[in-house]
Amino acid sequence: MIGHKDAEKAFLEAWQGGRLHHAWLLAGPQGMGKGAFAERVARFLVTRGADGGAVSLDDPGDEVAGRLVDAGNHPEILRLARQPKDKTRELARNITIEQVRQMIRRLHLSLSLGEWRVIIVDAVDDLETDGANALLKTLEEPPAKTLFLLVSHSPGRLLPTIRSRCRMLRFQPVGHDVMTSWLHGLRPMLDLAEARAIVAASGGVPGKALALIDSDVAAMERKLLAIATSGDPENRLREALAREVGGTSNRARLELVIDIVPALLARVARDRPVAEIAPILAQWDRVQRTVRDAIRGSYDGAMVGFEIGNCLAELAPRQGQSAPQPAR
């Protein structure tokens, strides 16, 4: 639960002051634990009465209600999320209008337990257009004692009218030193250089750092840096990279490369004269376009890996320039 202190403070101050807004937009990068924060808030509300004396979201409330929450059976916590669409368990592309309608029908029923009902939409970005419009109407005329927690990874893409009906809680990336200390607390035996590489690759997003913690981030970073340093004139390094990240079984390695590249480009930029920053930014844009195109079309990991290698090769220093150095 790293990086939630400001959000928890803002929510508790509203609760204790008796001015709890009916809808909260939990906004920030994916992997910040916004969904987990929403679950903590939901548990907090449905396990206590009307008093505002709690000093932490984790303060114990009613024991019976707490057991229902732990079992996933509390009747006053409603969740909207993408559902498996078939026996393969692959998730549907969107949260459907029918899911929203079912939730709205539940809102017309009286509370059966406790004093609050909580609706968690994770993520509100996944709503179909009709579903978003239906939710908006409910936010405009919310039932009493009902709290909406809308998780969003891209709040700028939401309907402005939805944003305007919510109080926003922003979850910002965690600072480098705090993240490094947190990782060492989780894995005391983790090498400091590896921890720093993970933190840099994660961009301060705890969920991403957890996904990277068992990957050899430092080794992959050295491979990518070798391309950026040498220019890989015979394509050997790029071809090896394409083989390493190609295919469905290597999807995690490809995602690792995509996570590492921003920090690596930033390091290259710091070591170059100001006049050479623009070409580095151009390669970053090229990497972004490559990833977006891959997601929209057929996901060819080998092609994406090779193209990222091409972008890095363009950064090889010319005569008289110094090469970027590995992170220490």
Task: List the defining traits of the structure above.
five-stranded parallel sheet; 328 residues; single chain; 3 domains; alpha/beta; Rossmann fold; 14 helices
Structural topology:
Elements: H1 5-16, E1 23-27, H2 34-46, H3 63-70, E2 77-80, H4 97-107, E3 117-122, H5 129-140, E4 146-152, H6 160-164, E5 167-170, H7 176-186, H8 192-202, H9 206-212, H10 217-230, H11 236-245, H12 251-270, H13 277-296, H14 301-313
Parallel strand pairs: 1-4, 1-5, 2-3, 3-4
How would you describe the overall organization of this protein?
The structure is a single chain. With 328 residues, the chain is an alpha/beta fold. The chain has three domains: 5-170, Rossmann fold, CATH 3.40.50; 176-214; 216-328. Helices cover 51% and strands 8% of the residues. It contains 14 helices and five strands. It has a five-stranded parallel sheet with strand order 2-3-4-1-5, sandwiched between helices. Strand 2, helix 4 and strand 3 form a beta-alpha-beta unit. Helix 7 packs across helix 8, helix 12 runs antiparallel to helix 13 (277-296) and helix 12 (251-270) runs parallel beside helix 14 (301-313).
Apparent shape: elongated
Give me the secondary-structure category: alpha/beta
Query: Do you know the CATH topology of the largest domain?
Result: Rossmann fold
Number of helices: 14
Work out the radius of gyration.
23 Å
SSE order: HEHHEHEHEHEHHHHHHHH
Instruction: Just give the CATH class of the largest domain.
Output: Alpha Beta
Which CATH-level-2 architecture of the largest domain? 3-Layer(aba) Sandwich
Q: Into how many domains do the coordinates divide?
A: 3
Question: What does the main sheet amount to?
Answer: 5 strands, parallel
With strands numbered from the N-terminus, the spatial order across the biggest sheet is 2-3-4-1-5
In the predicted model, the low-confidence regions spanning at least 5 consecutive residues are none
Number of strands: 5
Mean pLDDT: 86
Helix content: 40-55%
